[in-house]
Amino acid sequence: MAMADRVLVVGGGPAGLEAARGIADLGTPVLLVEAKDTLGGTPWESYATLTPHLAPTRELMAEVKGAVESHPLIDVRTATRVVASEGGAGNFQVTLEHGGARVVEAAGAVVVATGFQHFDPGRETQMYGYYEYDDVITLVDAERMMQAGQFVRPSNGAPPRSVAFIQCVGSRDRRIGNQYCSKVCCGIASKQSIEVKHLVPDAKVFIFYIDMRMYGFWEDQLYWKAQEEHKVNYIRGIVTEVIKKGDQLLIKGEDTTMGRPVEVPMDLVVLSVGMEPSAGTLEMARIFQIPREPHGFLATVGEPLDTVTTPVPGVFVAGAAAGPKDLEDTVSMGGAAAMRAVSLLRRLAAQPA
Amino acid sequence: MAEKAQAVEGETVMVDGVALAPQWSRMFEPRAITEYDLSVLDDITAIGGAESLGWCYQCGKCTAVCPVDTVGDYSPRKVFRRTQLGASLLDSPDLWLCTTCSNCLRVCPKEVNMIQIMPAVREKAVAEGQAPQELLSAFENTARYGNPLGEPARKRADWVKQAGVPVPIMSQHPDPVEVLWFVECYPAYHPRGQEASVALARILSTLGVDFGILGREEKCSGDSQRMAGEAGLFEMLAEHNVKVLSQYDFREILVTDPHAYNALLHEYPKFGGEWPTRHYTQFLAPRIGEMAFTRELPWRVTFHDPCYLGRHNGEYEAPRQLLQAIPGLQLVEMGRCRENAYCCGGGGGGMWMDSFTAQFTSMRLSEKRVLEAIEYGAEVLAVTCPYEVSRFEDAVKSTGNTGRLQVMDIAELLAKSLALVD
């Protein structure tokens, strides 16, 4: 059986870009497949700025994106999907579909970097009214507004006088079936709250939370900064429901450090939606027969010391396809997956035929 | 659809003429929070020095060590939340309950600094005439007489007559001295403070210390008035004392009062007055070897660390070294000692607000502390801050422990063992 000296990277987001660049820099050819028309993944598409320094996403990602696009060892296929796979480590025969046409390509190893999708607040068991009220939006909707350099109430286009972020929407919830923390939403809400204060300095901004989960440096880079420099108000106690009242939204919950119910009108409510495996990730699990771990993301073996090796020989995972990740962890996994994939190919090549 | 009932925010609710606290009032009126009026928090944190009130992230560490919260419903965490909810700190009793003991700051991960917040916000309240009347009286006494007790300035050195040893007064003493003793108000005027002053004068004399006092030229150091919100009065006092001290020739300053110690160490240099300064326990501890103890004091003694000697200025050892040098004396530590010592309730103006504070607390801090001393089996509660003798002696009486616990200044214990006093 012919050994394919090439790695297939599925997904062109931060994890896939870093994996592709790493593999190619090690001298191994890469076939990078991205379903969308452009590389960059969820951040490129949806986020105005990135944690923790609020740098513009497109400026920040342009370098790595350009490096991948211009790399002589990387064959970039956008608007292309992986639809089938046969074979295994050393010789995957992968069917790609592009514009209705199918081709079969060979690869010795696969890195799956198909990421996550944002939780759909319509599935929320609380009553937040995302699909009922114009002024209930998600973190993603907020980022899109910020990409356009504004932050307004969708209902009337006016800047909000009061904004409430509601944390843990779709995360940490047994009834929804997501018993995990999505890791980044506390940081992103804090980041956005700073940006809201930049765009609408007079807005009163509140973050309603169960616990603020600010990993590592985000504690002072985002949380303390938002509270101390930008006067963002953190209120412990999650909002249970949102009710329309006049032209405002009445948020109802408990202010737990005061031990009192809350019924406060807000102009705008931002739902801090968490992460779930993307449709692409679930599709790759099916095509490559990668088991899913109990939370539904792609399983890895050798935790916690090996974050990228799946139970399927020759298939590695990077980024949020394996579970909620911040960008730092996502990119680090891309590098680790590159190293594992290339070393597998070299090991196979060194074996006697 | 019917209009929803309007939520009413009931803090304290009057039912049949009876005021019901929020935890009960919910049975009679809904008490949902219907607004976060952030303008109040904005106003408070806009006051220079009070910025850090807005930094609280509600961990609650302060509540566990706040001496006031053990007898009432006050802690920095709660102050932040109430302010964030739109209750003005300027109008709240909370503003006057803090004794500036600094135990919250010691444990606060966010460095919410009540030691800066309280004087800054109180200053604004005082300027608006919103301070408790007893506190204003203490300020007025201090401004008029140079001491919060309202005693005449000319009597400031009257205690010297009981000393039985020479206590030179600088204005009548042409020669330089080694040690300028800044006596302060309570040691000069309060009967129990005077007894400690007599004891200390005799100890200094026995050790051959070349010392002098300012007598009527001395005015209150003003540190507690500063913490209670009277920065202007403090400035006046500091300028006066620095001017008087600058006239005389001495090597170092010895203070009886940790509050004066704090002012001389950290505040007076801003007014051009900077001298080597030691609390009397720090001055005496290195000279234990020169002390000829002749009487055993076979007592179980516990020591109350003064907030302004311990937490504010880091001195925990000198008082203990002196106590342990006394023959027969057994030093027992209370649970809350050293860095975590409880507070007598006198700091930050608390000394002059006992009636006000009593309305919002179940007992005085001094009473709580006396009960702790008894719980740990002490026969003597040793103190080394002049606020404390009177506060704790009152607390011994009010808790019905007369005869069970004596309160004595370390100078008095030393003088007893040195057979300098009865």
What keywords describe this structure?
heterodimer; A: 353 residues; alpha/beta; FAD/NAD(P)-binding domain; five-stranded parallel β-sheet; 20 strands; 29% helix; elongated; B: 422 residues; Rossmann fold; four-stranded parallel β-sheet; disordered N terminus
E-strand count of chain B: 10
Mean pLDDT of chain A: 96
Integer tally of domains of chain B: 3
CATH A-level architecture of the largest domain in chain A: 3-Layer(bba) Sandwich
Using the CA coordinates, give the radius of gyration of chain A.
22 Å
Terminal CA distance of chain B reads: 85 Å
What's the CATH topology label of the largest domain in chain B?
Answer: Rossmann fold
Cα Rg of chain B: 23 Å
Q: Tell me the quaternary state.
A: heterodimer
CATH architecture title of the largest domain in chain B: 3-Layer(aba) Sandwich
**Structural class, from helix and strand content of chain A?**
alpha/beta
Q: Largest beta sheet of chain A, briefly?
A: 5 strands, parallel
Pair of chains with the largest interface and how many residues each contributes = A-B, 21 and 24 residues
Low-confidence residue ranges of chain B: 1-10
Strands in their spatial order, largest beta sheet of chain A: 5-2-1-9-20
Strand-and-helix sequence of chain A, N→C? EHEHEEHEEEEEEEHEHEHEEEEEEHEH
How does the overall form of chain A come out from the CA principal axes? elongated
Whole-Å distance between the termini of chain A? 9 Å
Unreliable stretches of chain A: none
What is the CATH topology of the largest domain in chain A?
FAD/NAD(P)-binding domain
Please, could you describe this protein's structure?
- The complex is a heterodimer of chains A (353) and B (422).
- Chain A has 353 residues and is an alpha/beta fold.
- Chain A has 2 domains: 7-115 and 278-350, 3-Layer(bba) Sandwich (FAD/NAD(P)-binding domain); 119-274, FAD/NAD(P)-binding domain, CATH 3.50.50.
- Chain A has helices at residues 14-25, 41-46, 57-69, 139-147, 185-199, 218-230, 279-287, 327-350; strands at 7-10, 30-33, 49-50, 55-56, 74-77, 80-88, 91-98, 101-107, 109-112, 116-118, 136-138, 162-169, 204-209, 233-236, 239-245, 248-255, 260-266, 268-273, 275-277, 315-317.
- Chain A has a 5-stranded parallel β-sheet with strand order 5-2-1-9-20, covered by helices on one side.
- In chain A, a hairpin with a 4-residue loop joins strand 16 (248-255) and strand 17.
- Chain B has helices spanning 22-25, 38-45, 61-65, 76-84, 94-97, 103-107, 114-127, 133-145, 185-189, 191-206, 223-227, 231-246, 258-267, 280-284, 317-325, 354-358, 365-375, 386-398, 410-417, and strands spanning 13-15, 18-20, 177-182, 211-213, 250-255, 277-279, 300-303, 330-331, 380-383, 406-409.
- In chain B, helix 10 (191-206) packs across helix 19 and helix 17 packs across helix 18 (386-398).
- Chain B is of the alpha/beta class and 422 residues long.
- Chain B folds into 3 domains: 35-127, no CATH class; 133-285, Rossmann fold (3-Layer(aba) Sandwich), CATH 3.40.50; 290-417, AF0625-like (Rossmann fold, 3-Layer(aba) Sandwich), CATH 3.40.50.
- In chain B, the strands form 3 sheets. Chain B has a 4-stranded parallel β-sheet. Chain B has a 4-stranded parallel β-sheet with strand order 8-7-9-10, sandwiched between helices.
- The chains are: A alpha/beta (353), B alpha/beta (422).
